[in-house]
Structure formats: structure tokens, C-alpha cells
Amino acid sequence: MTATLIDGKAFAANLRTRIATEVAGLKDQGIVPGLAVVLVGEDPASQVYVRSKGRMTREVGMNSYEHKLPADTPQDALLALIDQLNEDPAVNGILVQLPLPKHMDEALVINAIDPAKDVDGFNVLNVGLLATGQKAMVPCTPLGCLMMLRDHLGSLSGKRAVIIGRSNIVGKPMAQLLLRDSATVTIAHSRTDNLPELCRQADILVAAVGHPRMVQGDWIKPGATVIDVGINRTDDGLVGDVDFDAAKEIAGAITPVPGGVGPMTIACLLANTLTATARVYGLPDPEGLTP
Ligand SMILES: Nc1nc(=O)c2c([nH]1)NC[C@@H]1CN(c3ccc(C(=O)N[C@@H](CCC(=O)O)C(=O)O)cc3)C=[N+]21
């Protein structure tokens, strides 16, 4: 192995320690941040994530409110719950676990969340604020990726970044964040012509397509920094979108799966909840937790 391993698990643990210190400081002022997580349906993977989010929320000293609704919940009932959480001063962050059951309009539900409590950063207002370089709530996965990239590379200015994946959750906000750091950004996707050749030009390669081991070793520029956002459950366990064993011999640095982007996503959810709390009380943004 020649690449440096970017240890997201350790990075996230460190981030949570810093968050816990900030939370303790707020408690001295009588403020306890609260995160509400809403899960509709019984998807086993989603239940695992929600449980681990709840545990880590409590570990950093925040209040965790979990709302589990049956899969056949009418959309109006979910909207009524969101309204109630929007109005609840004990709730500073609201996360509605995606995907939602097919009978629901995901965009409508997400846009019903108070933008100030939208810790996923999926609400159109936050998307627009990020795109125009204003103070926003920033989606957790790209925020975690940005933190790891800055930590490993320092300045991203002038670097060529290729993002594979154009989702609203990862690809598009990742592009916005990298642009803000003056990287030269290309968003590629499953229909991109000559994808391997394009990837070979990338100093920073972010893989967020959802195809197990799609990115081959010879797609990677020697010395490049590779961020693997993929979480694919296969017969040989959890694997990323990058062929890790091949990539680690060529890349300069790479995130593993598991133990890379995933833990950072949850840590950034807590970071966003802390930021949202600070902002409602008119306090300055916590240091180092926002882009
Ligand atoms: N509104 C919303 N916001 C989300 O942020 C959101 C969501 N919906 N729906 C589902 C996805 C998925 N997601 C993950 C978070 C952490 C890990 C994670 O910590 N993974 C561990 C491994 C966990 C395992 O073993 O399964 C790791 O990569 O090391 C994975 C996936 C957040 N999501």
C-alpha cells in the first residue's frame, strides 16, 4: 500500500469530542441542543443509521428525539409532525430519513422543514444559499468530505476535482463546496463519455455513484486524493464505489469503506445541529464546523 489512509472514523471521533466541548459550554448557559430524527417505515439499514445517530447525539450531550412512523403513514400526518417539530423550541435540528415511501412527495416534505432546522441542508432555501455563497446549512456528507480534503491537502485552490455522481444529496453540493474553495470542478455521472480518461485528470476524485468498485485503479491519477462516498452491501460485505485494493497502490490518499465518509456524515450532522442551535440564539458559528 502506497496511499495514505484518510481515517474518517478517527477524524469523526475527534470532531465529536470538539462538539461535546461546545455542547457543554452551551449547557452552562442553559441551552441543550436537540435533534429530531424522523423515520418512516421499517427499512433495516435505515433503522441501523437512525439508532447510531441517536446514540451519538446523546454521547455529545444533545437531546435526541426519535419519531418512528409506519410505512403507510399518510403524507399529511408526516407534514403535521414536521410542523410540530418546527414550532418546538427544544428541537434545533430536524432530519427526515430518506428515502421516503413511494406515496410521499420527498421534495414537498423536505421543503416543509424550517430552513433554520434543516440540518441535512436539503431544503431549497439552503441549496440556494449554498449555491450563491451565503450562510447555509450544508449537507452532511459533502461537508465531511470537504473537511477531510482540507485536512489532507491544505488549500484546494486550483486543484482539478472530478465528482462522479450528480445527486442533490452528494454530487451537486460537493461541487458547490469545492468551487467555494477555488477548485476546478467537473461533475461526471453514469452517462459521461470517456469517464476513465476524465477521472485520470483529477487531483481530487470523489466517487458517489452507488456502483460497487466501479472506479478502477487505472482511472486514478498517481498521487491523487480519492474520496469514496459509496456504501454498497455486497456478498463480500460493505464496499465502496472505488476498487480500494487497486486504488491504494496508485492514489496519494484514500478513504476506506467502512470507516471513511460514513462516520464523518454522522459527525457533521451533529456539527450542523450545533450550528443551528448557535444561530437561533444569536451566537457566533462554532469554530471549524462550518465551511
Ligand atoms: N435525510 C437523510 N440524511 C442522511 O444523512 C441519510 C439519509 N437520509 N438516508 C440514508 C443515508 C445513509 N447515511 C449514512 C450515514 C452513516 C453511515 C456510516 O456511518 N457508515 C459506516 C458503516 C455502517 C455500517 O456498517 O453499515 C461506515 O461507512 O463506516 C452510512 C450511511 C446517511 N443518510
From TrEMBL:
Residues holding NADP(+): G165, R166, S167, I231
Pfam families, per database record: THF_DHG_CYH, THF_DHG_CYH_C
Alphabetical UniProt keywords: Amino-acid biosynthesis, Histidine biosynthesis, Hydrolase, Methionine biosynthesis, Multifunctional enzyme, NADP, One-carbon metabolism, Oxidoreductase, Purine biosynthesis
E.C. designation(s): 1.5.1.5, 3.5.4.9
Gene Ontology cellular component list: cytosol
Pathway in which the depicted protein is active: One-carbon metabolism; tetrahydrofolate interconversion
Catalytic activity, reaction form: (6R)-5,10-methenyltetrahydrofolate + H2O = (6R)-10-formyltetrahydrofolate + H(+); (6R)-5,10-methylene-5,6,7,8-tetrahydrofolate + NADP(+) = (6R)-5,10-methenyltetrahydrofolate + NADPH
GO BP, sorted A to Z: L-histidine biosynthetic process; methionine biosynthetic process; purine nucleotide biosynthetic process; tetrahydrofolate interconversion
Gene Ontology terms, MF aspect: methenyltetrahydrofolate cyclohydrolase activity; methylenetetrahydrofolate dehydrogenase (NADP+) activity
Residue ranges occupied by any Tetrahydrofolate dehydrogenase/cyclohydrolase catalytic domain in the UniProt entry: 6-120
Domain Tetrahydrofolate dehydrogenase/cyclohydrolase NAD(P)-binding: 139-278
Sequence similarity: Belongs to the tetrahydrofolate dehydrogenase/cyclohydrolase family.
Subunit structure: Homodimer.
Protein's job: Catalyzes the oxidation of 5,10-methylenetetrahydrofolate to 5,10-methenyltetrahydrofolate and then the hydrolysis of 5,10-methenyltetrahydrofolate to 10-formyltetrahydrofolate.
Entry protein name: Bifunctional protein FolD
Naturally occurring in which organism (per UniProt): Paracoccus amoyensis
